[in-house]
Design brief:
By secondary structure, the protein is of the alpha+beta class. The chain contains seven helices and 14 strands. The longest helix is centred in the N-terminal third of the chain and has 14 residues, at 28-41.
Length: 302
């Protein structure tokens, strides 16, 4: 079940970069990555590496590179890293797995390859359900490449525009109001006004209440402006009531923009895709490092 190599393969290098060590057994790094990928794809499903499973008929012991142990989803997985000699998984590899499937208490077989599959291997996999009574699913599992990112939504950029209305007011003073303002030593009216008063000093209305509702609605199409004639209305200057005939207004919109970028959790390191297309995913270093293996070989999310 292991590829004999004299030097670390690209898979070994990836495993060491992710976890900081390299398993002693040749090919084990790829098996562990395959188990980690299965756990990330199905977090609630028990997944084991190098699992010992007894045959139902022969009662002999099998050693499974990857064992997914959950009812109808149970699977015996074989993992082959042939990156060092750059050869594809062949039919013989599939036949070996197929020969064990009939005796194993699993629903199907899965075959992980870092280099792809030969045509005869894929033909055997397609007919496995008829040949051995259980299907075999070929799965590509390898370090991710630049081309794997094409056509994927890898980040979402959201721009949030917040529009807040503000109003600038102008007042048209009565003759009496203008004279009173002059007597106070004020040559012109330059005061912020937020409400109108009656002659008795009680509040008549807030300034915003005088603006027609449709002006607030139309401010997004352009800053509306207008005038409102008034009778018996006053504004306050230094607590003195100053008479006005009416007011002018202009509604403007203050716009602030915030940008939020939603990105994947980490950098894509591993590409996994089933031949039938039901699985097609990039796994990140952050997610892969969440996987730990217990003493029994079970893959768990840390």
């Amino acid at each position: 079940m292991h590829a004999n190599t004299l030097m670390p393969s690209p898979i070994d290098k990836l495993f060491r970069d992710l976890y900081g060590y390299l398993p002693a057994k040749d090919g084990e790094a790829y098996e562990l990555l395959a188990a980690a990928a299965c756990k990330l794809l199905a977090p609630s499903c028990p997944v084991f590496h190098d699992s010992r499973v007894r045959g139902e008929l022969s009662k002999s012991m099998y050693f499974l590179d990857v064992h997914t142990a959950k009812g109808g989803s149970s699977a015996a997985g074989e993992a082959k890293d042939y990156t060092a000699d750059k050869r594809k998984v062949g039919r013989g590899d599939f036949q070996k797995l197929g020969g064990a499937l009939g005796d194993l208490p699993v629903a199907k077989g899965t075959f992980f390859s870092a280099t792809g599959f030969t045509k005869p291997a894929l033909q055997y996999a397609a007919a496995a359900a008829t040949i051995v009574g259980k299907p075999i699913e070929p799965i590509h599992l390898r370090p991710s490449e630049e081309a794997d990112h094409e056509g994927r939504l890898e980040s979402i950029r959201v721009q949030i525009h917040i529009e807040q209305p503000s109003v600038a007011f102008g007042v048209d003073l009565t003759d009496e109001g203008r004279a009173k303002l002059k007597a106070m030593g004020r040559g012109s009216f330059k005061h912020a006004v937020d409400r109108l008063y009656r002659a008795d000093g009680n509040v008549m209305k807030s300034m915003e209440e005088l603006i027609p509702p449709e002006c607030w609605k139309s401010m997004y199409a352009g800053p509306p402006e207008g005038s409102v004639p008034l009778s018996g209305a006053f504004v306050k200057v230094d607590e003195e009531l100053i008479g006005i005939r009416g007011l002018t207004y202009q509604v403007t919109s203050n716009v602030t923009t915030h940008e939020v970028v939603i990105q994947p959790n980490g950098e894509a390191k591993l590409f996994i895709k089933s031949v039938d297309g039901s699985i097609d995913k990039l796994l990140t270093d952050t997610d892969l490092r969440k996987i730990r293996f217990t003493d029994s070989g079970e893959a768990v999310l840390a």
